[in-house]
Amino acid sequence: MSNVKTTKCPGCQQSYRIPVSKEGKTASCKKCGQKFKIQFDSTAATPKKQDDQPRPTAKKETPISAPKEQKAPASPEPETTETKSESPSQDTVPGESSEKEAYDSITDASTSDVTSPSEQAPETPETPETPDNPEAPPEKPKEKKTMLEYDSSYRPLDPDTLMESLDIVVSEDKLQAHLVVKKPLDRDTTYKDIHYFLVEKKVLFGVVDEGKIKNFLKKKLLHNRPWLIAEGKSPVEPTDGEVSYLFDIDPLKKPVQEENDSKERIDFKDRGEMPYVTIGDLVAERKPGLPGVQGMDVYGAQIKTRKAKQATLRTGEGVELSYDKRLANAKINGMPVLQVERNQEKVIVVPEYYIKSDVNMKTGNVKFKGPVVVKGTVESGFSVTCATLSANEIMKATIDVEGDVLVAGGIIGATVRSKGKVEAKFIKGATIESFSNVTSPGGIIDSKVYTSGECIVEKGKILNSQVCAYQGVSTRDIGSHTSPESTLTIGVDPSLLKQVSQLEVDLAQKKKDLETFKEENKVPEDVAEQLEQLIAKIDPLKDSVEKTEAIRPSLAQKLEAVKKKANKKELQKTIKTIKEIETKYQAAKENLARLIQEREKLEKELGELPQMEAEITELEKKLEEVKNLISDDRQTAPIKVHGTAYRSTIIKGVHAELELRDDEKKAIFQEIYKVDEEDKVESVIASEPLKEKGK
Predict the structure, then answer these.
(1) Which of 131, 155, 542, 562 has a 20 to 30 Å separation from 573 between CA atoms?
(2) Where is the composition biased (Polar residues) (predicted)?
C-alpha cells in the first residue's frame, strides 16, 4: 500500500488511488473527463485553461479542424465520457512515453481503490426500470451530434496506405456518410487513423464516438459492407401558422348511417345539427407559425430552412377580433359561418339560419338552436327543430319550435308543435299544438288545433276540425250544410288535457303490467292484505320494544337505590315489577323478530308487487290533481261567430256541452254557471247575439 497514494480530480473532486510511479503524468478523469497532472502533495493540480495550453505544431501543412468553440465543450457529453477520456492530450509533458498508462490507472480503478464515499461526488445508483418502480430514471438522452474533435498533430505511420484502404460514401442529401474498407486494414490501425482519414475527406460532423470506431476496427466482419460512421442533423421544417375554426365549417354533412339497424340503412335526411354560438363564445383562433431548426450535413455545413408562413384571421359581422388579432369571439347569438371572398376566408356570425330555397334532400332535416328562415317550402317528410321558424309554406313535415312559427302560405298535412304563436294563411289536414295564439285568416280545414291561447279565424271557416282553445275562438263560420260537424272546446287548457291523456295511457299500461305479473308469479290475492295486516302489528310492537329498551338502565338504578334503603317489602315489590317488565320485553322482542321474519317472507313472495302498486297509486294521484285543475278553472272563454255556426256543430266547455240543432248567425257562445232553486250550481253553454264593433 505504500506504493499507492490518493489524488483528486481538480474539476469534480473525484478521488483516485494511483501508483506513486505515475506522479507527474497527465490523466483524464473518468467522471467528468477533465485532464489533469497527477500530484500527490496537499495541493491538487490546477488544470490549465484550454486557451493557455501549448498547442503542438501540426505536421500537416493545412490541417482541417473543427470550429474553435466546439473543440472544448463546456461539459462532457453523457455517452462520450469514455471517448473524451481516451482522446489525446494537448498538454502532454515532453518526454512522457504514454498518457494511456495514467488513464488506465484511473479509469480501471476498482471500487476498493477509491476513497470513502464521503470524499466522492455523489452518484445515483442504477435503478431498474420496472412497472413496480415508476420512479425509475429516464433513458439516457440520445448522443448529441457535434463537430469532430481530433488531434491535429497526429499523423498515421503510413497515410498513403490508409487512404488507399478506405473510402467514404456520402448520401445525396449529405446527411449520412458510410465508411468503405477497400483493402484489409493494418492490425495496428487506431481510431486516430480513422479520424485522420475523415478529416482528409472533410467529414467533420456527427461522427460516431470512439468506442464504436474501436468496435468496428475489432470486428472484421463489419468491414465487408459500408458502415455508417457519420450522420448529420436533419433540419426541422417550420410549422406554418393557421386559423383554427371552433365550429363545423361544413355543417351539411354526409347522410348518417342509422345505428342498431341490421340492414345498415342510411338516413339521407339526417345531416346533424347546425352550429350555434352565444355572445362571447370563441369562434376562431389564429395559431402563429413556429420557426424551423437548421440542420447540418456531415461536412459541417448548415442546412437552412424556409421561414414559417403566418396566417391572418379575418372577421366580419357579428364577430369581435381581439387586440392581438389572435382570437375571434361572437358579438351576437347566432350561427357562425365561414365566408370565402376573393379566395380569402372570413368568419362571421349571423343571427339566423337562412335557407334560400326549400328544406329538402339538399338541406336534410334542420336542427338549429336559433331562428330559421326558409325562403321556400318545408317539404313533406322532413323536420325542422329550432328556436323560431319563418317559412313560405309547410307541407307534411314535422316542426318542433321553441318560439313562434310564421308561415306566409299554408300549413298542409304537417305536425307543428310550438311554445309560441302559430300564424299561417290557412291550415289544412294538420295538427297544431301551441302555447299561444293560433291565427289562420284563410280557415282551418280537416285539422286538429290545440292552443293555450286564442284560435283566430276571423275571415275564414272552421270545417271538419277539432279546435281546443283555452282563451276562446273567433271565426267567421263554423261548418257548412255539407261538411261533417266540427267540435270546439273552450275554457280548457289543452296542455292539461294532454297531461290527462298521457297519464291515462301510462296508468292503463301499469295496471296491465300488474295483472300480468300476478298471473305469471301466481301471487295469492290475499298476500298483499296479509302483508298490510302484518305491518300494522309490527309498527306498534317495535315502538313498545324501543321504549322498554330506553327505560331499562333507569330500572337498574332504581333497584340499587331501593337496596340501599334496606326496606325488604319495597325491595321485593321493585324486583317483581322489574321481572314483569323484563318478561314482557323479552316476549315482545321474540314476537317482533318472528313478525319481521314473516314480513320478509311475504315480501319475497310478492317480489315487485308492492313497488308496482305504489307506482299505480302515484299515477292515480297525479291524474286526479290534473283533473281537479281543469275542473276548478272557471275560465269564461267565448266563441265569437261573425258569420254562421251551422247545425250539428258541437261546443264544449269545462262542465257543459252543446250541439246546435239549428244554424245560428252572429252569436257568442260561452259556458256560464247558474244557480237553480235548490242552490245547486249548474253549468250550461249559452249563446247571445254578437254585437259588431261600430254598430
Answers:
(1) 542
(2) 1-16
